Amino acid sequence: MEVSRIEAAPTKIIDWRRLTAKEIIKYNNDGVEVPPQYLKWAIDFRQDLDKNDKDETTYEMAQNQKIQESRKKERTQAQDNEGNRQETVNGEVQGNPAADIQTENKKTDPEDMSAKQRREQMQNDGVSTVKVAKTFRAESKELTGQSNRAQGEVENIQSSSENEISMLEGQMQDTLARADDIKSKINSEKNKKSLTGNISTVLQLKEQLKSLGTDAQNMLALADGDLNIYQAAIDDKLTISNDTKDYGTETILIGEDLIKENPLFGYPIGKYTIRTGQRAIDSGDELSNKANNASEVNRSNISEIESMKNQVQNKTGVGENEIKQDKQDNKNNETNKDNKNDPANTTAATETDKAASASLEQILMAKIRKGQDLEA
Length: 376
Known about the structure:
Elements: H1 21-29, H2 36-47, H3 59-73, H4 81-84, E1 88-89, E2 92-93, H5 97-107, H6 115-124, H7 129-190, H8 199-261, H9 266-316, H10 320-337, H11 347-358, H12 360-370
Antiparallel strand pairs: 1-2
Helix pairs in contact: 1-2, 3-8, 5-7, 7-8, 7-9, 8-9
């Protein structure tokens, strides 16, 4: 019986996000071409570690940690230095805005109210317009600072999303090309005269094709998860933008009220309050524009990943749902292994499985004799 020689299984796709800095650098030293963003991260990360530190942080873990830390900081930033200093109008000490905010926080958490609601509550409590203005200037300044920082973070998120999809495009092109090559070899084996002698080769090729599809679908699922994390972070930045514009708008109105109440002495502080509010609105608008643009890019990339999943399924026969089912089956099997009373763990069941596996080649041979398609 003649059995055709089969080439070694194609090299598995390298998922750089799952590697530690040390592993990425080793690949680079071995002559493997590492995507620039991963190599740069690995080098920078290793430089921050002690020489004997056995760190196991992967690129993916580091990126997720950065996003989580960024989200925690947004609402815990200290008051702007300007908000912590005492202000004077015509030489009169006006108090500490940060202390005013802390006093208000004891009554009702400002995060639970809109800027307008907070202003109305302060007015109902008998707080003077001057004091309200100081509180809102301090809040507007803090939000402006948060908004300015968030602009840079949004740009970084967009860049990460674009880099992720660019890397995937190259890897999926390679995967689809490999799939075409394997399917071509399968068809070549089918067309040979001595078909029965090539069953083993066809089975091995089919396993290669399935393995290739499984690796690709797993990688796409991880990337999909990354991009959804990016989207959540972008949405958080839009919340900051809205809060900044909300407080900026109300701060301007308070400044105008100061001027109306006291055109002479209220004018300087009123104009200053208006400028503070306008800066907040400008910063919020800029963040909104950048966040919306990043969101559009990232959502488009998420859609492209869905398209890639379909392409992989069409080429390899391995779909996203099949991967999910396999994972669930593996989980169920692990659970069943712990159950000594489960029939699947009996000797009889094991022998049945062996018999079914042994008859697979016979079934394929029967299909060949009848001229049926092996894919059926």
